[in-house]
Amino acid sequence: LNRRLAEFGTTIFAEMSALALSTGSINLGQGFPDTDGPEEIREAAVRALRDGRGNQYPPGPGVPELRTAIAAHQKQRYELAYDPDREVLVTAGATEAIAASLLALVEPGDEVVALEPYYDSYAASIAMAGGTRIPVTLRPHEEIREGVTHRRFRLDLDELRDAVTDNTRLLLVNTPHNPTGTVLTREELGEIAKLAVERDLLVITDEVYEHLVFDEAEHLPLASFPGMRERTVTIGSAGKTFSFTGWKVGWVTGTPDLVAAVRSAKQFLTYVASGPFQYAVAEALALPDTYFAAFRADMRAKRDVLAAGLTEAGFKVFQPAGTYFITTDIRPLGESDGFAFCRALPERAGVVAIPNAVFYDHREAGAPFVRFAFCKRTEVLEEAAKRLKAAW
Ligand code: PMP
Ligand code: GLN
Fold first, then answer.
1. Which CATH architecture fits 39-287?
2. d(Cα 44, Cα 35) in Å, to the nearest integer?
3. Helix 93-105 and helix 256-266: axis angle, to 10°?
4. Residue in 275, 322, 329 with CA at minimum distance from that of residue 303
5. Which residues have CB under 8 Å from 15's CB, separation 6+?
6. Tens digit of pLDDT per residue, the chain (392 long)?
7. Separation between Cα atoms, residue 182 and residue 308, nearest integer Å
8. Is the C-beta atom of 247 inside 6 A of ligand 1?
9. Is the beta carbon of 206 within 6 A of some atom in ligand 1?
């Protein structure tokens, strides 16, 4: 294994899902739903397969029906107009979109500023591109409003500014944010945008959880801020929005130059993927608002079940404004090392979770935090909560 990849080992998701299987534990580690997406969309995939649509190599940029649907989605939801032929690219999940964007846009030695903790493929993809990652740590913050404690991980804008140097090529942003559940606010995004314009940086923004925002939180695409459309590569995925993580259909939107650059890398990674599923996702993106609202309400209810269970079990809970993850602080349980905690958890409680430290370069900053996924059936969440309560 070459030096660029040697430090990464096996992805934590594979390790933890294997542990869940071998110990018969409830898997709240890897983020995938235990209920598949809409029946009518599964039927659309079957129809495509049966009718011979997508069984052979689809067009390199993605099938026209899907590119059109992605452009319509960005326009309808965010007033962002993209030309389906030149400004949209279909990828093998968001994972390929991230890798191809970094491989296309980063020169060896360029610095890439990313919000820490970060989704694990970011570090590996930056390394494969020969870039240097510069983490900016999201800091836990607690405030009491009207007698209620609100906790979130927030961006320190001074730290972000200080991280940018003359060698910085791009900012890699993720909102709603995995694993903290933070949804960046209008103010935070506005400051990121200002900085990007001021320092003439490119931005890759991973918005795969765009439809998973709760309560008062609102997802604002970074590309919609002044001066950003021309410098931003936006990434989305059907895996999260429609609960089909196995289909691996993702996409990129951006200017013709940026999308052409990403396509240059993408064509030599997979060339194309997911033929029949692309047609089905085109139909999914055109589902009525009621689908998106019901999906959000369902996930919000699941969040509340797990958050209540974790709180009762003694964890300090960071109530997520978005995504399907809850980050907890394990120190109230008398624990401080998330790695040791997660390795012992299957034996102790029959539950699998992810130590947030794997998403940090500053491991010590992530040590006491542990992530639980709540994209599971309610009875599964309730059983997990019961087991955790019994274990402490
Ligand atoms: N980005 C983030 C923030 C994610 O959490 C995930 C997967 N959970 C991905 C990208 C990858 O998405 P996909 O499965 O579409 O490759
Ligand atoms: N993105 C999902 C998570 O954060 C898992 C993706 C994967 O297994 N690579 O849990």
1. 3-Layer(aba) Sandwich (3.40)
2. 17
3. 110
4. 322
5. none
6. 898 999 888 888 898 999 999 999 999 999 999 999 999 999 999 999 999 999 999 999 999 999 999 999 999 999 999 999 999 999 999 999 999 999 999 999 999 999 999 999 999 999 999 999 999 999 999 999 999 999 999 999 999 999 999 999 999 999 999 999 999 999 999 999 999 999 999 999 999 999 999 999 999 999 999 999 999 999 999 999 999 999 999 999 999 999 999 999 999 999 999 999 999 999 999 999 999 999 999 999 999 999 999 999 999 999 999 999 999 999 999 999 999 999 999 999 999 999 999 999 999 999 999 999 999 999 999 999 999 999 98
7. 18
8. no
9. yes
DSSP-assigned beta bridge partners for residue 107: none
Superfamily for 3-37+290-391? Aspartate Aminotransferase, domain 1 (3.90.1150.10)
Q: Which two tokens stand for residue 66?
A: 């899907």
Q: Where in the chain are the domains? A: 3-37+290-391, 39-287
Phi first, then psi, for residue 9 (nearest 5°) are: 55, -150
In sequence order, what are the beta bridge partners of 252? 89, 235
Mutational test site, ligand 2, from 11, 12, 13, max ligand atoms within 8 Å of CB: 13
CA nearest ligand 1 atom 10, residue: 94
What token pair was written down for 217? 């939180």
Residue with tokens 């999940």: 93
